[in-house]
Amino acid sequence: MAKQASSSGGALYDAQRLARIKASKLYVSNASPGKVPVIYSAVYNIAFLGLEKLHPFDSSKWGRVCELLIQKGELESRRIMEPGEATKEDLLVVHTPEYLESLKRSYVAASILEVPPVALLPYCIIRSKVLVPFRKQVGGSVLAGKVAYERGWAINVGGGFHHCCGYRGGGFCVYADITLCIHFAFANLNISRAMIVDLDAHQGNGHERDFADDDRVFIFDMYNRDIYPLDYEAKRWIDRRVEISSGTRTDSYLTRLKQELEGAFQAFAPDLLVYNAGTDILEGDPLGRLEVSPEGVKERDEIVFSFARQRNIPIVMLTSGGYMRSSAGVIAESISNLHSKKLIDLAGVN
């Protein structure tokens, strides 16, 4: 199904939505010249009475990525940008009031997180131990859009909750941070066209539903067609759909990626690129079921950044899915590689 043109943003930018974006403080941060475009907060990491271990997602990987980069001497903690926490008014830019209200029911949060015992916890614990960390990561993704526009690139060491749309969550994705990042960019920055490059192993059905009727957003989604979420309706709104099978190996994955990305950039020239860089494509990942090596993940990220940087397109990177303990190390190594290839600068300001 083809996307429909939207004149002046159409219903996407009614007065109330614009007012919320303009009143938001998410673009206000300590992003001084002494900081680098790496966005992270210790609040990102999720721990609630050990129950988080019942899901294969490593909910402390975000902190370990930064620790590894700091240990290597490539990133100074004082140079990391601290994002704000998305408020209810910020979230209402995309989410329905009914959906946000539903998160107060413990069984709804348990279903989204795919950890059934969470249904037994009171809302106050779920809010402080789960929802606040997710809201902080949303703040990081929104801020990353602004910082990337100003500095050419930004990495939110978190975010990428691509299974959540405006009216429902799922797959460990509570808030639609990708959608929010792009809406804030359209309203506050001098851009009119955005591209999502989603290379998580799973289909990004959340942002696909959110941007179903918005021709300003081009969606490139390369995913394992054999696994969750199998959202056949949302597939209709992918502009460049690249379906691969379980067991796809590094060489064939990277060859296909280069070919398809070239075609995507020939078809659409974005003002902002949001890159969902899930590491669940790694060999051995129990949910992604692909066979891409750690070196292949590094090359994948290098390919995407090279496409953007060579074309002077601001790029936002989000770390998204990855269900092995080794994911944090692979992400850190990939960021180091981007730095060594001079696609990003972890020491300077450009």
Automatic annotation (TrEMBL):
Name of the molecule in the record: histone deacetylase
GO biological-process terms attached to the record: epigenetic regulation of gene expression
Domain of life from the UniProt record: Eukaryota
Main location group: nucleus
Annotated function: Responsible for the deacetylation of lysine residues on the N-terminal part of the core histones (H2A, H2B, H3 and H4). Histone deacetylation gives a tag for epigenetic repression and plays an important role in transcriptional regulation, cell cycle progression and developmental events. Histone deacetylases act via the formation of large multiprotein complexes.
GO molecular function, one term: histone deacetylase activity
Sections of the chain in a coiled coil: none
This protein's UniProt keywords: Chromatin regulator, Hydrolase, Nucleus, Repressor, Transcription, Transcription regulation
Pfam family, one: Hist_deacetyl
InterPro entries per the UniProt record, alphabetical: HDAC_classIV, HDACs, His_deacetylse_dom, His_deacetylse_dom_sf, Ureohydrolase_dom_sf
Domain Histone deacetylase: 55-333
SUPFAM superfamilies according to UniProt: Arginase/deacetylase
Compartments (UniProt record): Nucleus
Annotated GO CC locations: histone deacetylase complex
Catalytic activity: N(6)-acetyl-L-lysyl-[histone] + H2O = L-lysyl-[histone] + acetate
